[in-house]
Amino acid sequence: MGILSKKTAFVASILACLIANLEAKAIPKPWLNKNLPEEKRVELLLKEMTLEEKIYQLNQLVKGSDKNENNVNMWYKSQKINPLNGSYLYASQSPEMRNAIQKMAIEQTRLGIPIIFGYDVIHGLKVISPMPLGQGASFNLDLVEQASATAAKESQRMGLDWTFAPMVDIAFDPRWGRIAEGYGEDPYITSRFGEATVYGLQGRNPLKDLPRPDKIGACLKHFVAYGASEGGRDYNFTAVTRNDLFNFYLPPFKAGVDAGAVTLMSAFNDLSGVPTSANYFTETEILRNQWGFDGFIVSDWGSVVQLINQGYAKNRSQAAKLALEAGTDMDMVDKVYIENLEKLVQNNELDVKVIDESVKRILRIKFRLGLFDNPYVKIYPKEERYYAKEDLAIARKLAEESFVLLENNNNTLPLKAKNIKTIALIGPAADDAVTMLGPWRGHAEPNKTPTLKDALEKQFADNIKIIYQKGCDYKKRNLNLDTEKLAEADVTIVCIGENGKPSSENNSRSGIYLEGDQNKLIQEVKKHSKKVVSLLFTARPLELETIKKNSDALMVTWYPGSEGANAIINVLFGKVAPSGKLTATFPRYVGQVPIHYNRRNCARTGGQGNYRDASTKPLYSFGTGKSYTTFKYSNLKLSNNEVSKGEKITATVTVTNTGNIDAKEAVIWYITDPYATITRPRKEVKFFEKKLVKAQESITYSFEIDPIKSFGYYDDNGKLILDKGEIILQVGNQKAKIMCK
Ligand code: GLC
Fold first, then answer.
1. CA distances from 402 to 274, 538, 539 (A)
2. Could you read off the pLDDT of 247-269 as tens digits, one per residue?
3. Is 628 in the pocket of ligand 1 (CB under 6 A)?
4. Helices 38-46 & 352-368 angle (0-180, nearest 10)
5. Closest C-alpha among 647, 667, 636 to residue 709
6. Which of 81, 275, 606, 654: CA 20 to 30 A from 670?
7. Are strands 631-638 and 649-657 parallel, antiparallel or unpaired?
8. Does any ligand 1 atom lie closer than 6 A to the CB of residue 221?
9. What integer is the mean pLDDT of 527-549?
10. What is the domain count for the chain?
11. Is 545 in the same domain as 444?
12. pTM of the full predicted structure?
């Protein structure tokens, strides 16, 4: 373009902005009246909108750049901003840039509709909490709510209005890398933690709290049954019966909707023949018509255009039509809506009313988030924005309570610092900040994250010698260990597992063995060490028989987050007793998968139906987790042995700390329905509560039973059924029968 024409173009663009500006100012905007009801504001705005303006509200593009490997190569600096866009997946750390883009939307478009900025804040933005699978193991809902509130506060300060969390996918298959991002295999536990996360992100009263400058919108994902991916292979087909859909996969989403979550994200999976991103039955019949959800659904990354790969749409235009008509309101990054919807309407292949419905849902949530009233975020001084001390303390407490102690032979733990002169610190995770943080780590800064080596050297600098050797990598076969150095150590701490990358999206594995030479490493360490404490950094169940055999103590530390190293030291040295329990079964070997505690009964008893070549029992069952003390359960009592629909009964149990260390205990209550109109899981969690039990003290835990909630189950149409008959209640080693009349 010649100089003159460049200048002309520049002047023309300035003129266009000025005209848009003047035009924007000229139009009366009654929807900006805060005193009007939300629905009225939506209607007033919708009726002013052109078809083009409506369609752009359904479009989400990406802006910003970050190197989070889940968003690798997300270099969109060159992407021209279109202020008509409804949303940006905002991968920049600049609140200033976010406000500048928002200013273009408010001042340079005809109606000034604010943009909603979203990003993956899965377990923290700068202050990182444990991976959700570890959060679930904490059985501490209050800490998870607090940690989510930290994430919301830091996100808003970075310029975000919305996060794509919590992930509430039930998963029975550790080959699927994204088991890391959920809360395990149980619908009740996943429901409670999804709910707690929504409360932390949005507040407990969305209409009042969402507009607050420290709250952001939640997004329940991935709707629905994505965790059932065939063979544990991500993005693949999921064969899900209606029975399993209603009794396993949907309940956590219903809990999140009831908690006020303002959005959901559809998924990649083909749900028994109808992909979830174009599934009218789930996205409209169930979510809207049955549950009354009034927010919006955003697709997953390209999941609309992927309908073509799945053989459900013949081209982009049909993909757009099918997804929108099913109930997927916003199209994430593949532009398939802005490229096709107008023509579909013009050709009478799509009713504009369908578009209107989706636009209304998106506008409604923008009003609810307060974006029309306060479209800009406050700019805090950089040094005040993140890493508040109280937030780091919450992350540390949550990490401490997430660790699951699997083995502790001869009370190897807690370590007594006064008896230790030298620690051998071994393994690929021992000096690795990325693994502390785990995948989907927001905009965390590894250089600000102490590794276990850093923390040990800092805490014991003067009186304990730390001899560190990496020993091997996670995956490469490159064992290199000076075993002589082990002999002088009083204890060897081995840090192994998976690095912060693999347990995440598109990282499915055919096996769940420890990769590289890690098993060899632990065998070598065992031969030359006095005592071996193994720490497992992972967020998926792994095969642990070799580690178990070669460790005196074995603890799962998950990906423990920004304060993980300090949390590990507090637990290893007894400042805090471990209290985590597994919410995902650890198989003995991958051939047992799927193997989960809440599976149905076998037709045969007495060991028939088991493998003839190996054990059928998992290595570590759901609910496993030791403490530094022991607890005795006794005196299970019921306020009544019979209950009818509409009544409630209370069950109580006494828990005694029989040791000499104060410790927390998560008490998990299960029911078994031995006979019903559909076969039921062999047992199901229906309540849990965690409390501190002081040494030698006994306390009472209670469970108020509402038979509909605790004994009911769904039929194939989603109708809640409550049978009359016997229910078995179990807590610890205590059992009782309840007659449901
Ligand atoms: C990814 C993930 C989803 C994430 C989204 C935006 O593909 O499936 O969980 O929120 O894209 O990054």
1. 37, 12, 11
2. 999 999 999 999 999 999 999 99
3. no
4. 140
5. 647
6. 606
7. antiparallel
8. yes
9. 98
10. 3
11. yes
12. 0.96
The vertex-146 CA angle with 135 and 392, nearest 5°, equals 85
- 316 and 180 co-located in one domain: yes
Q: Which CATH number do you get for residue 706?
A: 2.60.40.10
Whether the CB of 301 sits within 6 Å of ligand 1: yes
- Kind of pairing between the strands at 270-271 and 274-275: antiparallel
Q: Which of 382, 416, 432 is the last residue of a domain?
A: 382
Instruction: Kindly state whether residues 70 and 184 are assigned to the same domain.
Output: yes
Q: Which of 65, 300, 304 to mutate to test the pocket of ligand 1 (most atoms within 8 A of CB)?
A: 300
Domain co-membership, 653 together with 584: no
What is the residue type of 169? D
Residues 107 and 253 in one domain: yes
User: E strand or H helix at 231, and its extent?
Assistant: none
The catalytic residue among 270, 300, 329, 552 is 300
Total length of the chain = 741
303 domain residue, yes or no:
yes
* Residue-level pLDDT at 576: 98
Q: How far is CA 249 from CA 170, 238, 296, 622, in A?
A: 6, 12, 19, 18
pLDDT in tens, 303-337: 999 999 999 999 999 999 999 999 999 999 999 99
666, 579 Cβ separation under 8 angstroms: yes
Q: Provide the residue range defining the domain that includes 131.
A: 33-382
Residue 152, pLDDT above cutoff 60: yes
Atom number, ligand 1, closest to the C-alpha of residue 71: 12
